Amino acid sequence: MSNQLLKHVLSGPPIISTSPNPPGKDLKLFQPKKNTVLVSHGRPPWYGENGNLIGDAFVIGVAGGSASGKTYVAREIVRSLGSIPTVIILSQDSFYKYHSPEELALAHANMLDFDHPDAIDVPMFVNCLADLKAFKQSNIPVYSFAEHQRLAETKYLYGATVIIAEGILALHDPSLRALYDLKIFVQCDSDLMLARRIKRDIKERGRSVEGILDQYLRYVKPSYDNFVRPTASHADIIVPGYNNSVAIELICTHVRRQLQERSNQFREKIAIPRPGIKSKFEYTTPSPTPEELDLTVLPNTSQLQGIFTILRDKKCSRQDFVFFVDRLSTLLVEYALQHLPYVPKTVVTPVGIEAPGKQLDANYMCGVCIQRSGGTLERGFRRVIRDVPMGSLLIQSDAATGEPMCLQVKLPAYIRNRHTAEDTWVFILDAQIGTGAAAFMSIRILLDHGVREEHIVYVAFLVARGGGISIFRRAFPRVKIVCAEVDDEMEEGWLEGVQDEVTNPGGLGRKVWIMQPGLGQIGDRYYL
């Protein structure tokens, strides 16, 4: 081994720090075992105005010998990419097969071959990677090297823009190679790989040098020669195992170009002048009626008119606003229950008489509020429907472009698991549907998880008749929408404080659409 290689292995690869964050990147690092999820400033729309997916996630396969530096290369790619919305590093090591007691005994005696292709649950690896590539959720198994066993826990993953699948056999199986948009092989000196492996296994896996060398000569080296090294012929790029910054920068330039080609300007396609939208330049023709839009609207009683009169008043105190918002949300959720399935049921009354009735026929039910204004409906939801799990979505507009950005997804277990998601009824709680950007994104997230469109009930205080609701209904006709009132107009305006010559040449700020008469900033009025 040369002095340069010896110095490199003794010092080890640079440690990737997440605090402070790299320039231009705001990352949170989660690392259960070897899988890593890097979340940046938000995820822009991955679908069109028809609600259908546009393209798929960009998948990179990184293969190479054991301790060749695959994980380091993957993380350096992430670092160099900059503010990519969500990146997942998916390790092949998570997909080792479940071991029997006999196999466990062999594993602890260093007599089980973990480097042979048969040790990997390839069908599960392919299915998980295919789901993530198609923007669906996946629950990744967690493998313990200390116990030599796949654990009962899983890691929920969703929302990747870029997926990096790394492992010694990442390029071995044709079904895996078919999923990659870019294939990389990390080529490293065999002496350096052995030295790294000894250092890693002693420090991280508590193994002895003798056991490491025995396993290396018995299984690792033959597997590398027979199965791993030949897969380099499938790679698009060969990357050296150290001093590889130039190769990584070339890879990132290619990935950035591919992601730019897949970018989607969504907001401007739904927030454009059309019937019912009022701008400072023109007035358009009347927009569709609530019946034509298939909206379920609360009966316009004197009580409802009185509540809205109080809530629309800008002089309304916060105490009154909170009280009447909670009251209105309770009425709204109660009215929305009509969209749930019911079956006949006969009960016996206290006086011994049979009485026909109905009971709820839903296996699973939960609520998802769009933060933060959607949280104003949560108290009413919990008053009406008890003991159901709640989730949340954080969707906000990008300050420069106005595009909706998915910042956080926290969904109940019913939705995170595919086998229960399709039988789950979901109430989405939102203050209003204006341009429909947040509504589009929330529905698409649920559909990605396997929730049926007809099982989604969207509950909102207000709907803008002339906003994005018409396009929303064409995209998702089977979603039930329940609201308390339909406002007629949205007025074009400009949000001050966001001014630049690229996105706003006139220097007026970011374009927004304001519902009229509306309720103002409901979240601010409720919480502040």
UniProtKB/TrEMBL annotation:
UniProt-listed InterPro entries: P-loop_NTPase (IPR027417), PRK/URK (IPR006083), PRTase-like (IPR029057), PRTase_dom (IPR000836), Uridine_kinase-like (IPR000764)
Recorded GO MF terms: ATP binding; uridine kinase activity
CDD domains, A to Z: PRTases_typeI, UMPK
Pfam families reported in the protein's UniProt record: PRK (PF00485), UPRTase (PF14681)
Positions of the Phosphoribosyltransferase domain: 299-492
Keyword set includes Transport: no
Domain named Phosphoribulokinase/uridine kinase: residues: 59-241
Protein name in the entry: uridine/cytidine kinase
Lineage, broadest ranks: Eukaryota, Fungi, Dikarya, Basidiomycota, Agaricomycotina
